Each structure stands twice: as C-alpha cells, then as structure tokens.
Here is the input.
Amino acid sequence: MEIKFVPREEIDKTKWNSCVHYATNGNIFGYMWYLDHIAKDWDALVEGDYESVFPLVWRLGRFSGQELHQPALIRELGIYSIHVLSKPRIERFLEAIPEQYKHISINLNEQNPVTENSAFKVKEQTNYQLFLNRPYEEIANAYSRPLMEQLQRAEDEGLVLTSSMKPEQIAAFYQENHPRELQSEEVFHGMQRVMYNALHRGWGFTSVALDTQANPLAVNFFLYSHGKVVSFMPLESPEGKKARALAHLFNGLIRQHAGRPVILDFNVGQKDALAIDFGAQANPFYQIQLNKRTFHWF
Here is the structure.
C-alpha cells in the first residue's frame, strides 16, 4: 500500500475525479471542480494509481506555517476509496499527513472512523438524511405535528415554489439575510461558482419560495451526487420565518422526489430541528484535531 503526497498542480484530474465518482463513499465535495472553487489552497495524499485519495485543504496559520482546516461550504472530506475503508487503511492515511501541517482541524466523511488509540482528538458530528424511495404520503406520515402546522401555515399564506432564480440572486439573498458575522467575500463568490458549475453539468437546481407578491421568502440550491440530493444553501428571510417558507420549500422537494431511489441530505453538522421534524435520520461523521505547534518565548 503506497501513499504519496501530490501537490495540487500535479494531480491527474481524470483519475482523481474517477476515484471520487466510483468511491464507495463518494460525495459532491470531493470532486476537483468543487474543491478548486471553494478551497483556496489544497494538495493531496494518493494511494497507488488513484485507488484512494485524500484532499488536504490548507491555509497559512497565524503563528506557524501551514495548517489543515475545514473551509466553509464543505461539510466533510477525508479519504475516498474504491477499496473497503478499514480502520488500518484510514490510520495509514492519517499517519501519512506531512509534518509541514502543524495544526489540523478537519472533518472526515461518514466512512472514515478513527481508531480509539489515534493521536487525534476525535469529535462526532451529526448530519441528517431522509430516504425518499417511498410514496409521499408514507414519508409525510412521519412528519412531526409542529411541522404539519408549519406547512399548513405556508399553504394559508399562499406560498408558491419556483426554480427560476439565478445563482447571483440566491447569493444576494444570502448576503442580505444571513447573519452579518458569517458573511465573507469567499463564501459569497464561492457559492455562485458552485451553483453555476452544477447547473452547467446538470447536477443541481435552484428552489425559491415566493409570497403572493412574488417576493422571495426562502431560497436553496440542491446538488445531485452519488444518489443524494444535497441541500446546499438553505435560508429564509425574517418574513419567511413567519410564513414557514423554508419548511414549505423542503416539503416541495420531498414531494417532487418521493418514490425515487434518492436520499435527501440536509448537509448540516449538528442537531437540526427542521431535519428531525421531517423524520430524517442522524448520520454521524468525524472531526479530527491535532496541534503540533510549538511556541518559544524569549
């Protein structure tokens, strides 16, 4: 089992994307086009002839050298492989992370469990997924009572759904309504690049809940990948919260895809009340941290 470090500019794009595409645990975040649009700097660990790949997203730390970090808009990465991801194989990859990264704080994907005696501090994170391969009525029977009341409120408000909003309009809505402390130019431009690339490839679509005056109250963009439809940028305005617009938007997605062999991936990293109300199942993934920095005081 040979694992080598490969700088971003030397990666074989076709072989990399093929590995992520056919990996037993592939997801949208691992493709090169997604990484290039969101992660400013990244290199990789590669097993053999791209049988397994591990993106290493880095930035310059405040105190010393490069550090591995988890960028916004990428829930998880980790090791993607066409092989069974046993704990020994995962441990070999983690041991192969170069010494140049003095601080590590990244999220591994759901099929990357870390051994108990690992050098890393491991924290379990929670995503939620809902299987849609059933009739809509059967899925809706599992909705919580508060959610049913929210959906009725949205119906009473006369909300309608559309997919005609452009990515820059979605981004503008996000910039206007998202908490100011979480906004950044990197996120603002990155989300648009991802949406336009997904539209170009036929891998995604916009979804917007409008009031009776055609004002947007909630927006989202859904990405198709590996048998999943991934919620990318869900957000509602203060008026949308009152009208329960985001719940209405997700319900429309579920109604549209019910009976198909796909999973709705809510794409979150912690307990999510709305996903739970829809009957989604908790799906753990793993954050690992390690600090190798040394400080010298004079």
